[in-house]
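Quick check before the chapter quiz. The format below is the same one you will see on the exam, so make sure you can read both the input and the output lines.
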Amino acid sequence: MSYEYESDNRERQALSDVIARWRSSAAAKGVRSFVLFVPSSRGGLGLSASYVKELNAGAGETFAFEFEDPEIDWKRYNLTPKGECHPSAYGNERIALYIAKQILTP
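Here is the expected output.
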């Protein structure tokens, strides 16, 4: 939710610490890391935008992304009409396409 991303709080600091540790571990193995924030539904769009900008600015490179797909069919994205935390096969396909565009574009 937006509170976790928009304010200075323990959850956000813990997330930042986990991301930094994971990136450091991946870099030590010669692996380039990426972080993608994926909304659970249309209502989650934009919640992590400022946090993503801060992460990238702090790292001096773009490694964090917020999922954006203006053509996505949100009704097909979720597993159930009520919405769940995990996307459907269609949603995972759209996410994979987004990732490929981000990491394969120089």
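If your answer matched, good. The mean pLDDT is 86.
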